[in-house]
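Q: Got a minute? One more chain.
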Amino acid sequence: MRDMGEKHLQIINDLAGETELDKNLRENEDLFCILMNRMRDAAAIVDWDGTIIFANGEAVQMAQSDTDQEIIGQNISNFIHPDYMPIVLKDLNLIKEGKPGPLKQYKIIDAYNNEKWVEGIGTKINFRGKTADFVTLRDITHRKKFEDELQTAKEMLERGVQERTAELMVKNRQLTEEIEERKKAEKALKKREHELALKSRFLEEANSALKVLLQNMENQTAEIQGDILNNIRSLVLPYIEKLRQCQSISDQMSYLSIIEENLKNITSPFLRNITAHYINFTPKEIQVANLVKEGKTTKEIAELMNLAARSIDFHRDNIRKKFGLKNKKANLQSFLSSLS
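A: Always. Here it is, folded:
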């Protein structure tokens, strides 16, 4: 590739009758070319029809051309990717109107039909006596590839995050459901424990009541046994003794009748009521009360018990006192019958 400064210098030296102004222009243009070729970015000058009228060495290298002559004179449409050509033409019109050219990214096509990403900006300048668009370009293919890879990785990461978030949401929902189930189970367990505690307390109270009842039954049984023994001693044994001593058949029959009746009364409610509620009754008073209940008169009771009538009246009076019937018109026999 020939140096553009040398090319232009050769052209200018070939012109005859070079003026001082021409010389200054030539020197300025040579300096411009030298500076452009030392730039690290590609630079080109394009007229308003899109024709390339200048290209530095970096532009030639970007286009994969051998010399700038392969580029100069061609239209930019030969190097711009078709998809981005409308954008470039729009920017070219803006620059022609004197408006600042925006920094844009677009694709170009080199001499070997390879696509490259470039970042370019243009500005309006005067070149060789006419206005044109001065464009600088920078190859960002590797950067775009890195950005694409970064975007792909970002998208993959975002998808991974979304998938992981979805998994976590499912796990969280499952965990929430398990917690709710455990709460329900714990609540049911506490309710069951409360019910069992109530039943246990009820059973303990029932057991205590049963123990008391059993104890009372045992006490009552012992009392009944004691009452039976006492009644036998007071209502049966005395008459058996009298029966042994008695010679009269009629008296013997009377004593036997009394013994039989008293044996029946021993298991009747009458004697149990007397012994349970009126434990201060003497054996004689129990015998008298039993005979009065049977409808025996004072005389008959005196004969049966081999006591004086006054003694029977004394016992009858004590019985009325102990039953709270003293000075009352209540019939003693009727009252005693009500205890049966």
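A: Residues 1-18 have pLDDT under 50 and may be disordered.
Q: Perfect, thanks.
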